[in-house]
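We close this part of the discussion by returning to an individual protein. The encoding preserves chain order, so positions in sequence and tokens coincide. The sequence in question and its structure tokens are set out directly beneath this paragraph:

===
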Amino acid sequence: MTTMPRMMMMMMTTTMMAMAVTMARLRGDHGAGPPCAWLLAVASAVATLGVRAEPTGTSPALAGFFEVDKCDLCLGTSLCPQILSGDVVIEEWSPAQPSGYGGGRSRGTPGDRTRYRGRHRNEAEPWRAVEAVRPLERSVADALEVALCARRNDTGFCDSARRRSPRLRRWARANRLTVDLVQGLRSPLLACPSQRLLDRIVRRFAEASDGGSVFMHHLDERDRLRLLFTLAASPQLVLQQIFPMQEGWPFARYFGACGRLAVSVGTVPLAEFVGADAERSADLAYQALTITAGMTSNDFGYLLYFTEMHGAVFGVRCDGQLRIADASVVGVFDQKQPSAPPTATATEFSDDIFSTLWKNGSHLLLFPSSSSSSSSSSSSHPPSTSCSAFPSADELEARNVALVCHLALRPLLTGAFHSPRGLQHQVDSLLALCEDSAMGPRVVTQGAAWLRSLLASLRPCRPDFPYRYPECRYGGSGL
């Protein structure tokens, strides 16, 4: 039997992949089965034909798409070899932007999008859904490059950046990442940084070699510029690295970066599950409450809190497990080591381009000056204006719970339960308790605990919930 020509095999694979994606979109049903059935169909097609997935386009075209030539002012290069070898494939598709429930979809040209769906695999592992994110729109990133890198030397290094950024000049000479070096960066991650948190960032920055030390001797000037660029442009990527999913933290897994795109585990926004069947809704709401309770309860003394809530903060993986997909709205308090007080350096860096990046970029300012305590607001301001007097773990948990119950679970659970009679009324009553911050922290958290206990009894144990099956048959919860 003659071997099928490679080109024909690739055409058949592409056709089957397109059919799988189209069928999954047409179904539009998150009520039954894992939310990424399209990926399973794609993996089956590739395995059946025995064809290795290839990157779409030539290596130079891919490098241009990922803007690898823009490094050092980029997120990193750790994932570039896998992308060029075909172990990471990015689709020309953009999911809904995090604009809240009912948000629209991006219809720009492929190169102008900020989010792309794709798939990733390691050797001897199956394909998994991933999402590639471009934190800054091309126009913003290009403007930043013009401001910092007016000229480059023969190796392409942005040798004028240090001269044009007072903050970077300090970074280049520093032996350790200290609080004064990050003051003024607009990020909830760095709103009240402790030295312990900053040391963790240096040790776990995935886009540089591991120096095994809290000191930055192992980071050359390019590494330092990439770390500063990531902290200023996309601190949520750093959060995924320092609190990795593999160690039990609630964030989506970070795989790496190539140029100005970073790749993490793919998820479907929780907002897209509004209207799902009762069992799926109960399971997702249970997971959301479990994650929220754990944000202020860990052995490391880091208190995580939401600064705002929208329909894509939580995302659902292909196996049905819930993750915090948008970590840009998560802040960190160090319970074991308070943040150092502000210094005069903050004023020195006030006009530094990295300090204004979030204002000029596509991100919203997370810390507006006005305050609000209403639980019906779509955003939550920092729990304290003083880093030396931050709320207790119980108060932070109550704030988190009120946001999640009102803005994430209320749309998901409203009208979800039709039987037995009275169940929906019971769910609504408990939601009213956990979403109303005016009731006080104790009532809010107790209401969430009661709701979580009720939802636990409604969770199914079936193969279409693979993140917890078959463990749930033998007493394991899966989460």
About this structure: The chain has 17 helices and ten strands.
